[in-house]
Amino acid sequence: MSDEIRIPKPEYATPAGVQHHVCEHDGCSKDAGWGFVKPKYAPHWFRYEHRAEGEHFL
Ligand SMILES: [Zn+2]
């Protein structure tokens, strides 16, 4: 038995693939850093300059 608590390093804290979201703005398809999600709904992702569109999903 060990009392050691393992804390993953930040670069390993996020499972592979989770950070790769694509902006849902028409014709954009760049990496999206902003997620918009309502409870029970799938998240919608937009990049910074298109994040206003994501607010329509909230
Ligand atoms: Zn965009």
Report on this model:
The protein is low in regular secondary structure and 58 residues long. The chain has a domain at 19-57. The chain contains two helices and two strands. The chain has a two-stranded antiparallel ribbon with strand order 1-2. A hairpin with a 7-residue loop joins strand 1 and strand 2. The protein is elongated and about 55 Å long. It starts with 9 loop residues before the first helix and ends with a helix. Bound molecules: zinc ion (ZN). Zinc ion (ZN) binds at residues 23, 25, 28, 30, 46-47, 50.
How is this structure best summarized?
This protein has 58 residues and is largely without helices or strands. Helix content is 14%, strand content 10%.
Poorly predicted regions are none
* Strand arrangement in the largest pleated sheet: 1-2
Based on secondary structure, the structural category is little secondary structure
The number of distinct β-strands equals 2
Average pLDDT taken over every residue: 81
Shape: elongated
Q: What profile does the largest beta sheet have?
A: 2 strands, antiparallel
End-to-end separation in angstroms reads 46 Å
Number of helices: 2
Helix proportion of residues, in percent? Answer: 10-25%
List bound small molecules: zinc ion
Beta-strand portion reads: 5-15%
The string of secondary-structure elements, in order, is: HEEH
Rg estimate, integer Å = 16 Å
